[in-house]
Amino acid sequence: MYCLASSAFPSSSSHTTLLRNKLSPFLFRRNLTHQSLRLHRGNFQIRAMRAVIQRVSSSSVTVDGRIVSEIGPGLLVLIGIHESDTDADADYICRKVLNMRLFTNETTGRGWDQNVMQRGYGVLLVSQFTLYGFLKGNKPDFHVAMPPEKAKPFYASLVERFQRAYNPEAVKDGVFGAMMKVNLVNDGPVTMQLDSPQSSKNETKASTKS
What we know:
37% of the residues lie in helices and 27% in strands. The chain is built from five helices and eight strands; from the N terminus they run H-E-E-E-H-H-E-E-E-H-E-E-H. By secondary structure, it is an alpha/beta fold. It is globular, with a radius of gyration of 27 Å. The N and C termini lie far apart (76 Å). It has helices spanning 12-43, 87-99, 116-119, 148-165, 199-209; strands at 50-63, 66-71, 74-80, 122-127, 134-136, 139-141, 171-173, 181-195. Residues 190-210 are annotated as: Disordered. Belongs to the DTD family. Its EC number is 3.1.1.96.
């Protein structure tokens, strides 16, 4: 008969310690990843003006059964204004939208070669705060959108920017705050989403805290 020393079998506490030591690097990496994700979500929340641009054959806005704006070929641009937006965001969106090469050059046949100004097409701007809607459960929340009393003059200044940069006759808009029916024929379809840069806002926020 053989007698085995008790040291041949580690105790339950020793086994637990050994297992914990083996797993600790994995647990550390997992916790670090979770912390990084939380920091990433906290530091990089969207703080930008947002535009959804659709290339259209035609588009119009109807309010109370009456067409208030319409264009033929061109761009329908839905604009979401964040509560922290400034003139710099408006400048960026205006410049980028007007210079996006979403149209074919009919002379050369080259696609994605010309912008809306080069083609002499129309631009229809529509304010849409729901672009900053977030679901809380099943209900949308719009608290990060700029409040209406502040957003109305800001949006009006954005429309003026587009008109000055391009052509007042070619740039149309809807009715701020109204219940609008937006009709469009998407050409392609082509739809782009554009957010203004957030780096300057993050730097401003950091300098304020320091």
